[in-house]
Every structure is written in C-alpha cells, then in structure tokens.
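Example 3.2
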Amino acid sequence: MSLIGTIRNCSGGITPWGTWLSCEESVAKAGDDITRDHGYIFEVSANATGLVEPKPLKEMGRFNHEAAAVDPQTGIVYLTEDRGDSLFYRFIPNALIASWIKVVSYKQWLSCTCLNLIAVIGLI
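Structure, written as tokens:
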C-alpha cells in the first residue's frame, strides 16, 4: 500500500518517468465522514517506501476518472471517464489556455475507426 486518503481508485496508468497515476473513480464531495472533495488523479512514485500524501493533480480535472495514458514524446495525458455517458479527455501540460479539453463523446467513440479517432484527438 502506498496511497491512502483517496476513494475508489481505478485503473490509472504508468508514466514514462516511472511513476503511477492513480485515478479516483468517485466525485464524492466533502461533508459528514468525507474530509475533502474527490474525483482527482494522484501521482505515486514507484520507489515509495511508505504511504504517500494524497496531493490531487487538480489541473487534470475532477470527474469519474478511469485510466490515464501519457504520450512519452509530448507529455500529453489522455484520460478516460467511467460513466454511461463517458468522455475522453486530453490534458496538455503547461498549456497557456485551458489545460484539459473534452475530445470525444462515448457515442462518437463507438462510431470511430482507429484511424479517424487518432485524427480526431490530433495525433495525425
């Protein structure tokens, strides 16, 4: 165990620099027995020898995170959401304007072939 203080962490993803992005699959708000808002991503060192303080990466948005994949060449992080009407997000580090952008809705995702999805998210 390396991360506590989070709720319903899901798939997440490894980074090219060797850390793990742990994704909260809950948007519970602070109140009653919950001490802080949830629905964030947390970065955990692979070399952690004990518990890591949960510091949310708020720039990556607050929603029902499922998984994260980092492009090793650009540092762009692609994020998925776990809901019936899920969306696919792209987090652009150090962006001068909005740092995360809705990319594709679930219905659009189902109608995409791999090639046109890659074009939609801007990889070609």
